[in-house]
């Protein structure tokens, strides 16, 4: 299986430590949290030897698929990392379905916003395809499962658009009440990657695996059975370089590898 480490736990003065990660780990960056010059300098140091896999999490602090802004402005914002993606031979570009959270909306308003998101996702997918970008769409968190995209809505997005690919965030799904084994079985090849982190279902705490209440054994059996080629991105809030290798070995042991 292919494992990648997110830049989430390597912020500010710890960023340079990513270059010390074992070479079998890929790198995924939160593009919006530093300048392109910063990322270029860091990535040059990370990819000096045998490291290969690279992916980018899109900027999301200000604009989302459900934002009340013109489409062109949104797509320009989301397209900004394309040059960096190609410079380091990116494989995946991660974009959220929507802004997330649990807003109290009438069902009619949720349907309107969800339709806007689905239309924009499909339009942006065309932009990505035309620019050689491997777009993956990530589920967002909502405790209690009352967000814009229920599991049924999230699954339907891909079932109705066979060219789209999903990235399932385990922590977000745990907060939203998703049945991950059902999702894996239904999406299979369209499920291109995972963000791996743990929690107790009440907050997006990005804990290390095994530090929350998720069943990682069942999850990894589903990975092996239905999505063995998916990218496995460890996305922790706080972790050391050695923690990632330790957790990779734990995950591999759960599938007998």
Automatic annotation (TrEMBL):
The keyword Isomerase applies. This is Xylose isomerase-like TIM barrel. It holds the Pfam family AP_endonuc_2. Gene3D superfamilies: Divalent-metal-dependent TIM barrel enzymes. PANTHER family: APURINIC-APYRIMIDINIC ENDONUCLEASE (PTHR21445:SF0), ENDONUCLEASE IV ENDODEOXYRIBONUCLEASE IV (PTHR21445). It comes from the Bacteria. GO terms for biological process: base-excision repair. Keywords: Isomerase. Residues 38-252 form the Xylose isomerase-like TIM barrel domain. GO terms for molecular function: DNA binding; DNA-(apurinic or apyrimidinic site) endonuclease activity; isomerase activity; phosphoric diester hydrolase activity; zinc ion binding.
